[in-house]
């Protein structure tokens, strides 16, 4: 099995990809790249069994009707979202609220934060994947799953805060986080990319996305239950790992 992890940014230069090959009771990092364009993501997707993408794959269900009503001058649907609670339904998806309830982490809003621009790119990439490889379910039930590296790390008992950025403290935290990952997953062969991973939170997040994709493939994540299934099909669903890192490689031969 091969899993692809993508840390998607609005700009190609900040987009990272990591491919892991699984077998023999472990995993080896086959490919690690920064500055990944749409065409490379689509190519790597086609060569992988499952892809974890760190970016929302959809918008809140309430958001488009709200915008459409505003454009049409239809006051009633707009007034339904009067007040902070109404605006929260426009800003956050069902899965965002689920992740916050489970982990305490608050995902960025796809419709009201700086995540909106990468999400637009993600929608285009999904269309390109659909044209070449067929449509992918937004709930993660096919070959593309939305992931959230910080939440995956927290689910695996690793620090999920303070490692993003280029400052000295952030760099030190990232290096310590990578050391913690190596100790928790001795079966993970980074193929000599340790220095690159310790120096780039984008590359590191792509690796975590690829590890999470493996958890999705094994059924070791929290998928949407009946109460969340309808929203997950349209808005997307963040897959949170349920087992430890030691569950990912499978039994050794």
Largest sheet: 6 strands, mixed
Rg value: 18 Å
Residue ranges: pLDDT <50 for 5 or more in a row?
none
Q: Could you report the average pLDDT, rounded to the nearest whole number?
A: 95
Strand order of the largest sheet: 5-4-1-2-3-6
Number of helices: 11
Q: How much helix is in the residues?
A: 40-55%
Order of helices and strands: EEEHEHHHHHEHHEHHEHE
Structural class: alpha/beta
Report how far the terminal alpha carbons are from each other. Answer: 15 Å
Strand content: 5-15%
The best one-word shape is globular
Account of the protein in words:
With 253 residues, the protein is of the alpha/beta class. The protein is built from 11 helices and 8 strands. The protein has helices at residues 38-46, 63-72, 75-79, 84-91, 94-103, 116-133, 149-155, 168-184, 194-198, 201-218, 229-235; strands at 2-7, 16-23, 26-34, 50-54, 144-146, 188-189, 221-222, 240-241. A 6-stranded mixed beta sheet has the order 5-4-1-2-3-6. It has a two-stranded antiparallel ribbon with strand order 7-8.
List strands and helices in order, with pairings.
Blueprint lengths: L1 E6 L8 E8 L2 E9 L3 H9 L3 E5 L8 H10 L2 H5 L4 H8 L2 H10 L12 H18 L10 E3 L2 H7 L12 H17 L3 E2 L4 H5 L2 H18 L2 E2 L6 H7 L4 E2 L12
Parallel strand pairs: 1-4, 3-6, 4-5
Antiparallel strand pairs: 1-2, 2-3, 7-8
Helix pairs in contact: 1-6, 7-10
Descriptive keywords:
two-stranded antiparallel sheet, 11 helices, alpha/beta, 253 residues, 6-stranded mixed β-sheet
Structure summarized in a few sentences:
Helices cover 45% and strands 15% of the residues.
């Amino acid at each position: 099995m091969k899993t692809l992890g993508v840390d998607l940014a609005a700009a190609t230069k900040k987009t990272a990809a990591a491919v892991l090959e699984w077998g023999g009771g472990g995993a080896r990092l086959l490919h690690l790249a920064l500055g990944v364009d749409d065409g490379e993501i689509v190519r790597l997707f086609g060569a992988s069994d499952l892809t974890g993408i760190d970016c929302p794959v959809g918008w809140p269900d309430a958001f488009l009707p709200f915008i459409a009503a505003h454009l049409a001058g239809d006051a009633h649907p707009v007034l339904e979202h009067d007040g902070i609670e109404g605006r929260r339904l426009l800003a956050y998806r069902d899965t965002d609220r689920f992740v916050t309830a489970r982990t305490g982490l608050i995902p960025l809003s796809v419709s009201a934060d700086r995540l909106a621009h990468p999400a637009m790119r993600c929608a285009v990439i999904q269309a390109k994947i659909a044209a070449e490889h067929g449509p992918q379910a937004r709930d993660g039930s096919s070959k593309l799953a939305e992931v959230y590296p910080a939440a995956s790390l927290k689910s695996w008992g690793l620090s999920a805060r303070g490692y993003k950025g280029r400052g000295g403290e952030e760099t030190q935290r990232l290096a310590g986080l990578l050391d913690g990952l190596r100790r928790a997953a001795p079966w993970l062969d980074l193929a000599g990319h340790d220095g690159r991973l310790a120096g780039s939170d984008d590359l590191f997040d792509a690796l975590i996305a690829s590890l999470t994709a493996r958890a999705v493939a094994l059924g070791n994540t929290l998928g949407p239950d009946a109460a969340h299934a309808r929203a997950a099909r349209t808005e997307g669903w963040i897959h949170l790992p349920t087992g430890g890192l030691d569950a990912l490689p499978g039994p050794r031969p």
